[in-house]
Predict the structure of Putative TetR family transcriptional regulator.
Amino acid sequence: VGETEGLPRRVAWRQHGTPADPRAHIIDAASRCLATVGLERTSLTTIANESGVSRQTIYKYFATKDEIIVEALEKEASDASERIMAVARKNTTAAGFVVELLVSAYSEFKRNPAISPVVAVLEGPAARARVLTPDVVATVRHFLEPILSYLPDRESELDEMTETYMRFLLSLLTFESTATRSQDSLRSYLHRVLVPALGLPSESI
């Protein structure tokens, strides 16, 4: 209602009817916008165009653009986490697991345009101040828990290992160097430096 006749895509759900999950449909559209035009150029209008609906329709499901962006980033991060864990769990040692976990996470942040905006956000002091809060550490701890399947006696050290892992990842995402020029160089660096920092048994590389 109230849309220009020449823009049928922007009339509420005209093309295919209301989807089973309208919120998910809009979030998926926002993810595509992040991947194609980036965070700065993703607006409510670009999300509406990608969704094939009007801005007014989007406001039925979300209060602000930021709400959509946050949920889109969370979805993309969740999907990326599944891929990262699938790769890391193929390793037969705790050292191999944690190294591949970080290598895969680094690669996702750098190569996946839908979640790479997180790196820019983390460069701000306010965001950095929230990175190592107990709630965030507890969330990331879940991804390091498979270490206990290799070394069951290290449970009391897992929170500290999680914080160390997060510090390494944040530093590597923020400051590029010869250690990050390729996956092989990053992998070698992490075996030399991260594995001992976590107190894990080393392995031949």
In short: Confidence is low (pLDDT under 50) at residues 1-11. The two ends are 64 Å apart (CA to CA).
